[in-house]
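In the lab's daily routine, each protein ends up as an entry in a very long ledger. A line of letters takes care of the sequence, but it says nothing directly about the fold. The three-dimensional part falls to structure tokens, numbers that each stand for a local backbone shape. The outcome of that step, for a single protein, is printed below.
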Amino acid sequence: MRDKIKKTIMDYFYITIGIMLVASGIYYFLVPNDLAAGGVSGLAIVINHYIPTISVGLLMLTMNIILFIIAFILIGPSFGGRTIYASLGLSGAIWILERLFPIKEKVTGDLLLSVLFGILLTGIGMGIVFNRNASTGGTDIIAKMLNKFFHIDVGKALLMSDFSITLMAGLTFGKEVGMYALLAVIINGFLIDEVINGLNMAKQVTIISTKGDEIKKYIMEHLGRGLTIYNAKGAYTGEEKEVLMAVMSRKEFVRLREFIREIDHKAFITVSNVHEVLGEGFKELIGD
């Protein structure tokens, strides 16, 4: 029970960090340069151009609340607490930045730099949020509604909604800004995937060594990881060998490599990247 509470606290802690990164990218780089890079934030930037008295943060908060109400009515209560927190938290974070740390002048007037730094912050932030089994809501909800009522794939529906917003940006702010906004949408999608892969990546290590017992003990007692043992036979020598296989974090692998180097510099080790590990000792299979 205590471990579950601790995990939940850490999830919301990292979601909050992700939210603040996304909010900073949107408010300091995308909003000042009218880069409506999809999502509710992009739509809020377009609306703010026509109704400047209503802030982007307040527009996002209002639209997210409306979308959640519609989603609960039409789709059902299928949204977890993390998604509600992340979605409304992002809107609130931008609203707070507008009030406490308002923009006095653009960080940069260069559209390409604004796209790169804005998407770098938002992509990393959204990757962190998604990795903690949450979503920033917005057009994700629209995509789910299109999927339910018009049987359009969620991915295609999300692309349609984001493309529609970048099209509005082009019509509102000019085709050049619209093209940069579309570029931002494309880069953001790739960046989010890379961040998630990087956060979840582990090492699968295979070891053949004459010091197998010592290595097994080190992996289980010092690294706290389990391992699998295979019996193999060398094709050249015909000698029976014990093959150890374990999955661990990158940091743990560095420790293991140094340990093996000290006790058996002739050990044979192969290492491969594992993009995601689910189950005991890693990410749980259950959701929110």
Remarks:
- Residues 189 and 244 are 38 Å apart (CA to CA).
- Residues 2-199 form one domain.
- The chain has a mean pLDDT of 84.
